[in-house]
Amino acid sequence: MDDIPDLVRLFLAKYNTKYGKQVVGIKSDALEILKEYSWPYNVEELDQTIEEVVFRVKDYYIEEKDLRYLKTKNVESATQMKDKKTSLYIPQNKTLEEIELDIMIQVLKEEKMNQSNAAKRLGINRSTLWRKIKGKMGTV
């Protein structure tokens, strides 16, 4: 947990370069959320989380609102450990558009940001994928 601030800075530099962003840092309340999260997949999950946030964020700093879903995710993980019958988690605090964007981003990450492969998996045209992401996030 003590390494989280240093790792965040490292990952910010990595993904600012990858996505052509200028995310300067992380606000203290957002950093506290990262420190409180259980990180079941350790550094790899933190890396993926920072990548997703940098990909989405439109401001210069990562704020608490950008990481709120981690609180829900922590509760969800604990619940799923107790009740293995749960097969699909649908966050109750997100709109359909936000859930759709989450799915598109996840598929893009799994396809190593290859939009053609991601669009094929999602069953939509590549230009439709690009348009939906651009419409929901501004510029990609």
Characterize the structure shown:
It is a single chain. The chain has 140 residues and is mainly α. The longest helix has 19 residues, at 64-82. It has helices spanning 4-19, 28-36, 42-56, 64-82, 96-110, 115-122, 126-137; strands at 25-26, 61-62. A two-stranded parallel ribbon has the order 1-2. The protein is globular, with a radius of gyration of 15 Å.
DSSP helix count?
Answer: 7
Based on CA atoms alone, the radius of gyration comes out at 15 Å
Question: What distance separates the N and C termini?
Answer: 31 Å
Which residues form runs of ≥5 with pLDDT under 50?
A: 74-87
**What's the total count of β strands?**
2
Q: How is the largest sheet built, in terms of strand order?
A: 1-2
Order of helices and strands: HEHHEHHHH
Largest sheet: 2 strands, parallel
